[in-house]
Structures are given as C-alpha cells and as structure tokens.
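Ops channel
N.P.: pipeline sanity check, posting one input/output pair.
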C-alpha cells in the first residue's frame, strides 16, 4: 500500500492535574495494519500452495478427471468396433443311423465326425465386413461304400459384405466420430477445469486477504474507540464536555466491538471456504493466513484484442464446438441409416479333399482306391484353390413403414441444431464476460487511485476533527462519524485491490 495513504491515528492520553490534554501520534497505514495483522494467527499459505492443492484435491478437478476418463472409455469402446478379431471352433460328433437301403453300405451307419474352424474378421470404418476362414473336418464311417475312410475335407473362404446405403460410411463411423469429438471436448474441459480451479483458489485467497484486512481495520478502530472513550471521560470529569459525549463514545466503542466479532467470524468463514475448495485444512490452526499481496495491473491490452484471443483460445468455447461437431456426426449417421438397406456381398474360396483309400466292393465289381493323403493335403488344395468357388450378390431390404428410422434422423438433426445453438450462445456469453472483465481491469488503476484519494481525504478529516475536538470546536458525535468514514474508505480500498486481483484471475480463464 502506498505510503501517502494514511490510515489511522492512535490517541495517546495523558492526565495532568487539573486538566486533560491529548497528544497525537500519527502512523502510516502500513505500520498500523501490520501491527494489527501481526496479531492474527493462522497457517501461512501462498497463492502457489493454494492453487497446487486445488489442482490436486478440488471437486472441480476430480469431476473433470472422471468425465475425461469416461470419454476416453467411450472412445476406446467405439474404436473397438473396428478392431480385428480371431475366432475358432472345434466340435466332434458320433451317431448311429439305421437304414433300410442297400446302398448305404451298412444296416446301421455309425459315422464319427470331427470339425474345426479358424479365421479372422474385421469391420472397416466404411462399413465393410470382411471374414477369412478355414474349415476342416474328419469323417469316419462303417459304410462299406466309403472309398475314403477316414476322409478329410477342407474349405477356405474369404467373404465380404459392403453396405451401399444404410450402414455405409458416416452411418458406421458416426458413433466413433461422436466419441472422438466428445473426448476432445472432455479434454478441453479438463484443461479448462485446471484454469478455473486456479482462478477459484486465487479468488478465495484474495477474499481471505480482504477478510484479514477488514479484521485488522476493526481491531485498530476498536483501539481508537477505546481511546476516544477515555478522552471523553477525562473531558467530562474536567467539565469540558457533557455526558452526551461520553455516551456517544460508548456507543461507538460498542459498535466497533461488534464489528470486530463479525470480522472474526467472517475471517474464519472465508478461511473455511478456501479450505473446503482446496481440500486441505490448516495444520493445527483454526484458519489459514495469507502471506502475499495482490499484484497491481500495469497495463491492459485493447478490448478487441482480448476478445479475439478469447474467441480463439477459450477452452469452454472450443469444447462446445467439439460437442456440436459430435452431434453433427450422429446426425449424418442417422440420415444414412434412414435409407433402405442395400448390401453387396460375395465370397471367394476353394475346396480340398484327402483321406485313406479303401477298396469298395459293389456286387461283382471291386473299385480300387490307393489314395493315402492327410488333412494337410486337403488344406493345400483349399488354399491353392484347386477346386475354386465364388459368389456375388445384392441384398435389398425396404421397410414398409420406416417411421422409426425417420424419427431418429429428425431427432438427431434437432439435437445437432441445439448443440450449434449452445455453441453460439457460449460464444456470446464468453465475449460478454471478456468485455465486462476487461472494463474492470481497464479501470482498475483509476479505481485504485480514487480509493487511495478517499483514504487520504478521510484521514485528513479525522486529523482535523481531532484537533477541533481538542479545542472544543466539534463534538464527539462528529468525530465518531469521521472515524466511521475513514473505516469505510479503507475497506473500499481493500475491496478494490481484491476486485482487481480476482478480475485478473478471471481473465486468465476467459482469454488464455
């Protein structure tokens, strides 16, 4: 605080036989307030410590972190829709089939089959489904007509299905696009929460600073009231003043004692608010104690420049922009999914067969089979497409009453429009807040100068009033009124300091 701002004077009363006399000792606000502030207890706390604790413990940060993790999980879930996967299956079966036909090769067939399948599948972002698989089987039978026993079969295939209308492109990646945008918005809001936590902790810190100064003012004012009462009593006993002067001084002292109690309670309350936000109580103390002074604003850039920087870098505004794009992604997906389903599908594959040959006797004829191969031979035939296969086709599905799809499309379009309106409104609010905060900072120096002038003028009034009171030219009531004006002027000055510091913290959030 500038040395030119004089805050208070302390009355030194001395008694001389036969008359009362006042000596005045003037002190600067720095010394008067420092003496009062030195009597205040509490755990020392810096702005850096307060903001660090807020970043670690505040509910704002924990809520933002949880939202970020939820968005991260949603994005991982949607990305998982396009992750390739492997699959496999193995089964074995045995059965007995009675038969009345002489061509079955046995009165009761007893086939035993083992079947296995392995492969992989993936869904592409444009909606294409691709699956590659190998199917192998082993067949063994007691039929006399089985020329291969056991018999090995293998089939290799590459299948695909490509949506052409519903499910194509944006319809398939819409959810992932929405999750990606939502994650970007959550990340921006997490960064915004860090700035808000810092600014909120700093604002609470300066509120504590102001509450301490208010208490210091109350303490020193109470001392002035006590000195004034002593002087009024001395003057009354000497016959220089009436009883009304004493009563006025007593009323003033009672008011200041009440003000001190209120200031004590307010200081504890403000400290509790700060402790609650930063999630840490004072170590072994009832309250925290500030150890720093608010910085003065040296210069402020132009309003248009600040607004431009805010519109380009404000994280909350960027987050709403990402959310608007997320809803647009879902709206595009819903528009595609409102179309009929038309899929192009196809397959490309090969077959193979192998086994152990066995002679087959059919009447008087014997069919020789000297084949002796295993499953690997059948697998080579299938992969090499010795016996190729292919398929290609279109599949069309047209709902008779597509009200559900159209309703979802219209709903998502409306949600996208709402998100865009929120973005536009957020931009207007941010610009309004930036302009209002800029005006606060722009007028900060002028406001501080006025507050300093008010303190200085109030001090001069009290100083002159004390001299006039000593000479009997004014009353104790007038002196009390002047002292009250001085207290209010000092509080306005403290409030102006804190108001400027909080505005600077707010501007760092709005226009990083």
């Amino acid at each position: 605080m500038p040395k030119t701002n004089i805050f208070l004077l302390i009355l030194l009363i001395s008694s001389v036989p036969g008359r009362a006399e006042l000596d005045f000792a003037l002190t600067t606000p720095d010394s008067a307030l420092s003496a009062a502030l030195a009597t205040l207890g509490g755990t020392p706390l810096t702005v850096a410590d307060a903001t660090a604790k807020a970043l670690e413990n505040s509910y704002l940060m924990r809520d933002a972190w949880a939202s970020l993790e939820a968005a991260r999980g949603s994005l991982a879930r949607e990305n998982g829709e396009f992750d390739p996967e492997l699959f496999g299956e193995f089964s074995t079966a045995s059965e007995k089939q009675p038969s009345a036909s002489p061509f079955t090769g046995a009165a009761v067939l007893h086939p035993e089959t083992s079947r296995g399948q392995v492969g992989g599948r993936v869904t592409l972002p444009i909606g294409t489904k691709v699956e590659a698989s190998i199917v192998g089987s082993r067949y063994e039978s007691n039929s006399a007509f089985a020329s291969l026993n056991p018999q090995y079969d293998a089939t290799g295939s590459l299948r695909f299905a490509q949506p052409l209308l519903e499910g194509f492109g944006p319809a398939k990646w819409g959810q992932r696009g929405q999750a990606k945008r939502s994650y970007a918005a959550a990340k921006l809001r997490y960064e915004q929460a860090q700035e808000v936590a810092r600014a909120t902790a700093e604002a609470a810190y300066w509120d504590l600073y102001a509450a301490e100064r208010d208490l210091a003012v109350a303490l020193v004012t109470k001392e002035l009231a006590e000195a004034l009462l002593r002087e009024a009593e001395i003057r009354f006993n000497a016959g220089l003043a009436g009883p009304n002067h004493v009563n006025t001084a007593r009323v003033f002292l009672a008011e200041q004692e009440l003000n001190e109690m209120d200031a004590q309670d307010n200081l504890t309350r403000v400290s509790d608010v700060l402790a609650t936000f930063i999630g840490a109580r004072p170590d072994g103390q009832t309250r925290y104690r500030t150890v720093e002074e608010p910085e003065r604003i040296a210069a402020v850039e132009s309003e248009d420049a600040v607004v431009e920087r805010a519109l380009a870098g404000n994280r909350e505004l960027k987050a709403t922009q990402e959310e608007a794009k997320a809803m647009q992604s879902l709206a595009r997906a819903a528009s595609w999914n409102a179309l009929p389903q038309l899929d192009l599908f196809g397959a490309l594959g090969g077959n193979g067969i192998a086994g152990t040959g066995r002679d087959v006797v059919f009447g008087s004829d014997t069919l020789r089979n000297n084949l002796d191969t295993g499953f690997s031979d059948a697998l080579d035939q299938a992969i090499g497409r010795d016996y190729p296969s292919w398929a290609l086709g279109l599949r069309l599905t047209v709902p008779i009453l597509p009200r559900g799809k159209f309703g979802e499309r219209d709903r998502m379009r409306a949600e996208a429009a709402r998100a865009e309106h929120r973005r536009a409104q957020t931009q207007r609010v941010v610009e309004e807040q930036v302009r209002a905060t800029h005006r606060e900072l722009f007028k900060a120096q002028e406001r501080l100068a006025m507050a300093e002038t008010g303190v200085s003028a109030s001090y001069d009034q009290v100083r002159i009033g004390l001299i006039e009171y000593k000479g009997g030219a004014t009353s104790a009531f007038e002196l009390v009124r002047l002292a009250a004006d001085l207290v209010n002027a000092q509080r306005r000055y403290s409030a102006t300091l804190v108001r400027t510091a909080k505005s600077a913290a707010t501007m760092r959030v709005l226009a990083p």
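N.P.: looks fine end to end. The radius of gyration is 44 Å.
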